[in-house]
Design brief:
This protein is α+β, with helices and mostly antiparallel strands. The chain is built from eleven helices and 14 strands.
Length: about 400
């Protein structure tokens, strides 16, 4: 008997009297109880169909095989081998799926319902984006900083693709309600997340909660715009706003439609080929509108704007949560260049290593800073900070004063 996971197998074995433990199974009283855990078998990667797919190229996508291949999950090989061996064990004269056995045992028998507890629960759909919530989601989902999101949304506003972005409102005014259904149709055409969703415009309408500007939404200009010509960052922000609109006025979860279709397949109301046809159509649409990546472009950093060029290896430098780092850190021989945001050189002088300062250091090797704090004199002063990188674990800096020499700052 094969159970779905070890805990279930142990419960069954206790009832059946299979108390002797062997490698990957429990034995006793004429039974051998084993188990799966997670997915023992998974879909094969793209290069299993053609070595050409080992390196993903946008022009090859989507990759949709005619016949799917499967492989044993890398960390599940031992249990897979145990189950395979047990199936050919001389002691085994039958194979039982535990979940089917529990179902078969109950089929055709009467059951008495002893009690019913009913609870009414509601899940409110998400509100539309104001600037702050958009920046928060863009950081969580896309890794954008608040400033990057503001730059992208401002550019989209100037292209008349979104409404005024600097707003703290989460609702639209009453006079906009009739325009929402047509806008949803436009969004569904440009972003094929879902087809013909229900529209409950009243959810996002409340003039009393609108301050100077209403919530951020897409505009009708979207209908005549070729999104493939937009930068990747702007397309990603548009996608977030589009998905939020569909969730706010339609179903709370876009994937709910596909879950419903899967249930139709299960009940014989929809063919598997019909379901896959919808998935393929959706995937093709997403690929078409996804981005404007060039062949060979670094996908890992495609949505991030480089701050500058690494002085060690010449690759782009990007901003992370704690540092500004070279994109060559994943190379076989990692570059190792990084500027820590909490670097003591700057914090001791009561200054922050900002994006602007880092960009100047990477571009010119120096930056003039005013109001530096002296721990010795407790006064402030102005100086030029020089990037003095020697290729070590940490990057060093020097101070240069107008008309004076240089002061080298070493790390302890």
């Amino acid at each position: 008997m094969i159970a779905e996971k070890p805990s279930v197998a142990q419960s069954i074995a206790k009832v059946l009297g299979a108390t002797s433990r062997e490698d990957g199974c429990l034995v006793g009283n004429g039974y051998i109880i084993s188990w799966c855990f997670g997915h023992l078998v998974e879909l094969a990667s793209a290069d299993a169909y053609d070595p050409h797919y080992a390196k993903w190229v946008l022009n090859d996508l989507p990759i949709i095989p005619e016949n799917w291949k499967y492989v044993v999950s890398a960390d599940k090989g031992k249990q897979f081998e145990i189950l395979s061996g047990l199936m050919s064990d001389k002691r085994v004269d039958g194979l039982v799926c535990a979940t089917e056995a529990i179902c078969t045992a109950c089929a055709g028998k009467a059951a008495v319902v002893q009690s019913i507890t009913r609870q009414e629960k509601t899940a409110q759909p998400p509100k539309l984006y104001d600037l702050t919530t958009l920046q928060r989601d863009a950081n969580r989902i896309l890794g954008y900083t608040a400033q990057q999101t503001l730059d992208y949304i401002q550019s989209l506003y100037e292209k008349k693709l979104v409404t005024y972005p600097r707003t703290d409102s989460k609702y639209l005014t009453d006079d906009m309600q009739d325009a929402i259904p047509e806008l949803v149709k436009t969004v569904c055409t440009s972003f094929p997340f879902v087809e013909n969703p229900p529209v409950h415009a009243e959810r996002v309408i409340d003039s009393s909660k609108v301050s100077d500007h209403h919530v951020i939404i897409l505009t009708r200009t979207l209908a005549g715009t070729d999104l493939s010509g937009l930068p990747t960052g702007e397309t990603s922000i548009l996608s977030l706003i589009a998905a939020r609109l569909l969730c706010a006025v339609g179903e709370p979860c876009v994937t709910a439609e596909w879950e419903a279709k899967l249930q139709q397949v299960e009940h014989g109301e929809l063919s598997a080929s019909g379901f896959m046809g919808g998935i393929i159509k959706l995937t093709n649409g997403l690929i078409k509108n996804a981005s404007t990546l060039k062949p060979g472009q670094n996908l890992f950093h495609s949505d991030r704007e480089a701050i500058g060029i690494c002085p060690r290896c010449g690759k782009p430098v990007y901003e992370g949560k704690k540092s500004l780092y070279c994109s060559g850190y994943k190379d076989t021989l990692p570059c190792g260049f990084s500027l820590r945001k909490n670097d003591r050189f700057f914090s001791a002088k009561k200054k922050a290593l900002t994006r602007k300062i880092a960009a100047a250091l990477l571009k010119d090797g120096q930056v003039s800073i005013t109001g530096l704090y002296s721990q010795k004199t407790r006064n402030s002063y102005d100086a030029t900070v020089l990037l003095a990188d020697t290729g070590g674990k940490y990057v060093n800096f020097m101070l240069e004063f107008s008309g004076k020499g240089q002061e080298r700052t070493f790390r302890k």
